[in-house]
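Our collaborator T.R. sent over the components below with a one-line note: 'Predict the complex.' Nothing else. No constraints on interfaces, no templates requested, no preferences about which chain binds where. So this is a plain run: every listed entity goes in together, and whatever single assembly comes back becomes the starting point for the next discussion.
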Amino acid sequence: MKLLFDGYNEEEFEAGTVFCVGRNYVEHAQEMGHEVPQDPIIFVKPANALRHGSYNLIEYPPLTKELHFEGELILLLRGGGRNVKAYTPADVIAGYAIGLDLTMRDLQTEAKRKGLPWTISKGFDGAAQVSHFIPFESAPPFEELAFSLWVNDELRQRASTNQMIFSPEMLLPYISNIFSVRAGDLLFTGTPKGVGALHVEDKIVMQLHTSNPDEVLLDFHAQVTEWQ
Ligand code: MG
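Returned assembly:
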């Protein structure tokens, strides 16, 4: 899948591995009843999970009765291979998007209880919703980014990057010690507090912005529909 930018971008990227960080905001770890992790919790989503655009449909999977939204800031990576040590944002990050780490919460809770993988609860078709990208060069510094998420016009999540437990500077060396990082790989950076259930017909709006929510950098819209 070719990744799309809002505005002109010199380079082209094919979507690669979708890396995700779990529990990267203190208050979300607490709302899920977990301790704040010592090391990053990393999982991946398969390619079939990816949906990419400005106006996306979310098909409600028949296997769950508790489909949760997790609004997240997403990094597009330039690559770097294995053992990325010296972290320079411009060398590592090609762009930013916003999107949803959709989760079948009931199945994930059962998987956690039984010590089973999260592949089904977080890897089903459409589980990785990704907006268009803003090029790194056009974006404010990472430290100034923030995002908001509304469900049916009600503000449900708002957070800024300075609330993250693990910054990209910590995450990239950690991930690249385990997985080779390639151009086009995506990194979902975790969700802040406020996750909740979705229902068919719900409308989601997300905005990437600066610390001032009126300085909007990107928009993303999605609507929940029946599973086809
Ligand atoms: Mg998440």
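Summary for T.R.: The first strand starts at residue 18 and ends at 22.
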